[in-house]
Amino acid sequence: MPLNASTLWNGSMLAFLAHTIFTCRAPELAYEQSWDSENYSIQDSQGTKGTIVFSNNRYVAVFLDIHSSQAPWHSDVSYDIQRFFYGLPEALNPFAEEALQYVLEDYQGNTIPVITAAFWSDGENEDIGAAAPWDEIIKHGAFLIETQMMVQEDAITILKANYELSSDEMEFMNALYERLICRPKANVRLDEKERSFLRSIAVSKKGLVECKKLLAQIGIII
């Protein structure tokens, strides 16, 4: 399956913006998505989480679904995390190690990285690298970012429905997205009209505070 880093990064950013706007109404769910520099993390509050580490035109994505048969708690076989990285190019090892720091769990009395799926791209071509068939990767955790992997038009339709975003909220999201894509390394400052809009959709002070924190992670300053 082809999926270059730019497409996945753009899809992750778009999903994050939709989530951030939604946070104005549901601040208690702010933790479900975050950016830490170039690292994107997501969870569904039902036992699945994942992180994608981006580096220019390369990336490594790891996922943990605690309900998966691949999780060590559901297997009699000794847990070997390296089996999820069979075929990983050596140059991507540092990114895999970084991604694994976001999926630490208690297992047999130790805190270790635990995953149930992983995939990557070395930037040489658009094909995804993985140690298992793609349907298995999706089944054991990558389903968490299926929207992020879609073409933009389809992703926008699903994000609008999932987050119940209004037309005004969609317009605001798309405007921020276009500014971020044009200036990926520069801070974006919201004007008074935009700040007023966020205040108008926030259900509480906490909602606005959480929204502000999330936007700051991607360089958007309120």
Task: Describe this structure as you would to a colleague.
Helix content is 38%, strand content 19%. It is an alpha+beta fold and 222 residues long. It has one domain. The strands form 3 sheets. It has a 5-stranded antiparallel beta sheet with strand order 1-2-3-4-7, with helices on both faces.
Short synopsis of the structure:
The chain is of the alpha+beta class.
User: Helicity, in percent?
Assistant: 25-40%
Weakly predicted, low-confidence segments: none
* Secondary-structure element series: HEEEEHEEEHHHEHHE
Terminal Cα span: 38 Å
Q: Beta fraction of the residues?
A: 15-25%
The overall number of domains is 1
Helices and strands, with pairings:
Blueprint: H1 5-23, E1 33-36, E2 39-43, E3 48-55, E4 58-65, H2 93-100, E5 104-107, E6 110-113, E7 117-121, H3 134-139, H4 152-163, H5 167-182, E8 188-189, H6 192-201, H7 205-217, E9 220-221
Parallel strand pairs: 8-9
Antiparallel strand pairs: 1-2, 2-3, 3-4, 4-7, 5-6
Helix pairs in contact: 1-4, 1-5, 1-7
Characteristics of this structure?
222 residues, 9 strands, two-stranded antiparallel sheet, 7 helices, alpha+beta
